[in-house]
Amino acid sequence: MSGDRSDQARKSAPRATDPERKAAEGLTPTGRRRQRAAPADLGGLDELIGYVVRRAQLWMVQDFRRALKGLGVTPAQFSVVRVIAANPGISQVRVAEALAIERARLVQMIDSLETAGHVERTRSAVDRRSHALCLTELGAELIERTQGPLEVHQRNISARIGARDTEELRRILARFLT
User: Fold this and answer.
1) Confidence at 26, pLDDT banded by 50, 70, 90
2) Is the alpha carbon torsion for 67, 70, 71, 76 positive or negative?
3) Backbone dihedral region of 131: left (phi > 0), alpha (psi from -120 to 50 degrees) or beta?
4) Where are the domains of the chain?
């Protein structure tokens, strides 16, 4: 009986066309193996620390986006939520300074996080011109839901450069946090 079901599933499943199958297998339409082109000469860019750091940053952001996919939060919003979680009642100005985000951009992010129910803005008891930011229960749940994907992302970085080099890189780059 189970053989009948698998036959039925195969018959009803969409079949890849021959060109689609060949492309998926890395073959040209004529069935030859595709040759990867040699990478372009970067003209010395690979010798510039800033360029290499930027490329690493792009890779890391893409990997982090993949890790957070489906959670409804961007890497930038994740950073804002983490800072608010660590500093309940923090002002928007201090969040912007801590994360080096333009204030106008931060206001948009806070608006989005507030609309989603993750963050709550209240008038500051210390400075009536500013807002105090706190996480809601949903915001705290978001922090919990991102923990697993964050660990996956960290493991992906370590897999790429090694655990010892990951720690060394963190130590070296920490100088840029101030």
Assistant:
1) low
2) positive
3) beta
4) 1-36, 48-177
d(CA 3, CA 1): 5
Asked whether 84 and 90 are in contact (CB, 8 A), the reply is yes
Question: Do residues 82 and 119 touch, judged by C-beta distance below 8 A?
Answer: no
Determine the pLDDT at residue 127. 76
Report the 10 Å Cβ neighbour count for 29. 9
CATH of domain 48-177: 1.10.10.10
Q: Where does the chain have alpha helices with state H?
A: 2-12, 18-24, 49-68, 75-86, 92-99, 103-115, 137-161, 163-173
pLDDT of residue 13: 47
The first and second tokens of residue 127, run together, are 């400075």
